[in-house]
Amino acid sequence: MKIALAQCNPTAGNLARNREIIARFYRSARRAGAGLVIFPELAVTGYPAGDLLLNRGFQKEVDGIIHTGLAPLTGDGGPSMLIGAPYESNNHLYNSLLLIKNGRVKPVQFKETLASHRYFNENLYFAAGREPSTIQLGDQSAGIIIGERAVEACGNPPPPDGPVKRLALKGATVLINPTASRYYYGRQAAREKGLATLAKRHQTGILVVNQVGSQDGLLFGGASLAFNRRGELLSRGTPFKEELLLINLSSLAGSAPKVVPPVQEDTGWLFNGLKLGITDYLEKNRFTRAVVGLSGGIDSAVVAALAVEALGAENVLGVLMPSPYSPAPSIEDALLLVKNLSIAHRLLPIENIFHAFSSLLNPGGKLNWDLAEENLQARIRGTILMFISNREHYLVLTTGNRSELAVGYSTLYGDMAGGLAVLGDLPKLQVYELAHYLNRNRELIPRRTIEKPPSAELRPGQKDEDSLPPYPVLDPILRLYLEENLSAGEIMARGYAEETVIEILQLVERAGYKQRQVPPRLWITSPAIERRTPSFR
Amino acid sequence: MKIALAQCNPTAGNLARNREIIARFYRSARRAGAGLVIFPELAVTGYPAGDLLLNRGFQKEVDGIIHTGLAPLTGDGGPSMLIGAPYESNNHLYNSLLLIKNGRVKPVQFKETLASHRYFNENLYFAAGREPSTIQLGDQSAGIIIGERAVEACGNPPPPDGPVKRLALKGATVLINPTASRYYYGRQAAREKGLATLAKRHQTGILVVNQVGSQDGLLFGGASLAFNRRGELLSRGTPFKEELLLINLSSLAGSAPKVVPPVQEDTGWLFNGLKLGITDYLEKNRFTRAVVGLSGGIDSAVVAALAVEALGAENVLGVLMPSPYSPAPSIEDALLLVKNLSIAHRLLPIENIFHAFSSLLNPGGKLNWDLAEENLQARIRGTILMFISNREHYLVLTTGNRSELAVGYSTLYGDMAGGLAVLGDLPKLQVYELAHYLNRNRELIPRRTIEKPPSAELRPGQKDEDSLPPYPVLDPILRLYLEENLSAGEIMARGYAEETVIEILQLVERAGYKQRQVPPRLWITSPAIERRTPSFR
Predict the structure, then answer these.
(1) Residue A240 sits in the same domain as residue A334
(2) When you count CB atoms within 10 A of the terminal residue's CB, does the N or C end of chain A come out lower?
């Protein structure tokens, strides 16, 4: 028996579109001779559908799609379908897996361990389901576990008494795991290692079907997996791409003729993830073109280069908005980038607008050189980009990186204004890595852009390092604090100066209010997303 | 035995300040002869402390406050303290209630039913606790339930087999319920009714101690409650104010000499809630002054009047930023408001700035009269207000109401730019109610401001009703969709035209991306906060 894993890219909430995608995958699987097609968790709605799940009209539409849009596909005895959808039973809504066969719909599993991450707060919408169940698959018994938590989040390797063991004790020799697991850098390797251990320990084949795509900044990596009972990896879906994988059920029992080597996550994963993030966000929101403000600095250069890879040079517009304090070399660097990328550009100096504000707001028009004036320049630029966006339907890509956003080194309604924060979860040092990766074939990001000291260029001679510690110090401290949740003392014990640690932690806590107004960012490196802390001084 | 209910206003995350508040309430209770002081849920950290709870340094500081900051207060045999705090036991963190007595700390209850609302996603931080327990209180047995869910959210009236019944079966004659329950309009009456029913049914007195104050837009209403075993209300804390309530334990057993009448929530509750919301947000974030852009319209007038009530006229600055398309009467209305409120103002016409942008962005400087230019005016105004904020440390209060924000009738980085969206959860029709309430003693909001048709005044002759249905139609449709989660069909069945319903629902779903970048708003009317839906077209 051939099983098809449908690694598809639904749009959360767009039921009509998702139905088409599901039907397309189903038809391909049928042509390939599959007996069963497995779709990801909640594939009918896309993940995460958020508060739409609370609406009764939405739930009714979901039911309609399932019974009149999907069930008939299987009506003539074609392959069966295992598909994730919200499904109501006994007045409770469950995150369910449905078996659709011969035109009939039957729920076979209600998710037991609901996710409680931010954005994945499934307790808001769903009741918790029952003990994982099994279904008959050819001559084998297959256990079903929906989602990533039950399989992965219980530690790596997972504890021996988890649901996989319970299913193995019930006689399951295959584990089916439809999931919508978001990707972040480094995660795939850990996941594969944990699943291989599980498969081997409990002597079950494992089929993971993961969603692919980006939804409001959340990245789903695909990279669906098939392990045999020895824990050998038989197949891995292409990361960050839709794909139909075909697995012979019998291959899970034997030894693998050819084992897929363990994954190596390099900068290419960041690149592919961010590229998909841009393409998907624009497409799902019906934009085809993007505009980027170009300063001559590395962040905006990397964003523009990524946008070109994602959308094509003809769909990217670079806008140079020099102020009287922009050094001439920066303008040259931006123009060189435009040339390297072959994108259209506009040169829109902000001097007159800045003076118009200044003469209204500064008595006598005399500059104060204070924060208000620095932010004013950034806000004029944000306003210009939004004007172009509103008039010509370009999406504004913002350019701030995670390091500067975390400490609040960014201007609300200025450089933070836009539709998608492409680098918003990328530490500055990784922005440099990405720049080198983008230049791997030929120089796209100008060499001087990479080599010069970073600066916001909002006052003459300004450098990031005047206000912030150097990034090789800042980035690791931020990681220890934001990802590993260490205390100030524990961070100092890693060799960082007390004064620096205290200063950075204070900056982070004081910038919490800005985090609430960042546009969606592509979450590519952080295990935790959208940190929420109380704002107080 | 006298019991003190400490209806206090902690700042989420500000441990040093909270310790002072707790000590102040404790000393007052001691002076009043109390034997026990009960504080709200998680009073040590304030609610909600968010992702600070994940940090090991924060948890260490919490432990320090408990053991060296609070325990010693009770060291000389003073009153005992029941206080909420995150507390670690067997490597799990619990939302706990601690009994502090004679200098010693003992956890007496770990919250069983964790909240899973947005912002209250306690599953992210805490393990679920055990069955509610009892403690000895004088000659009585007191059951403890932390938080609102176990007591209230199970339906109104609550189901007969809830935790209160289980505690009553264990012999509890008093129920202690420390909570941090957010307020929204209409909730207090429902809560009191449900609790009275519970008390009577299970023959237990009920003591509810609720947090008061505002935290990043969430309002906690106080209004702590004491019911006797007959379900008669003996005492209600003042809504929206800190207060120490004293209750004689013996009074819970007998019949009430004087029953407190049921609550009547009128516009005064909205007023007091919003007023506290402004005061608290500024104070907790160390601002003393606020700036409001005044258009002559009702929203900005109401915000300015509320700010004056909250902060004093001397701390409110009104800024008039007319464009060439601002009708003269609007400027007059704004000036009359300034006079009525006795606040300082500045008149900063945006014409020159608008022309500077226009001549840069419009070929030949010729206006297009399109959305880009409408938004440009709003963004120039937002930029001016932020300039004043940055230079002079005024907090910008934004003025958009819930009706227009919900349908996206607002400009990102324009009128949406600022620190606190005062009316962001208030339907337009309730803004009018509030205006009348503010005028109850004398005319503050000019009569013409109330009576003229609402307009954004971004083009000559523009009216809200050119783009939107009239508010008496829009507001109820929004309520049915956003609060009651009805389908389009169900809303039409209430008598609204199909075309209107479809149009509004589409506007709402398409404005989802704007909701992500609204500043914190004072959640005063919605049971659900911060609706999150996928963005797609």
Answers:
(1) no
(2) C
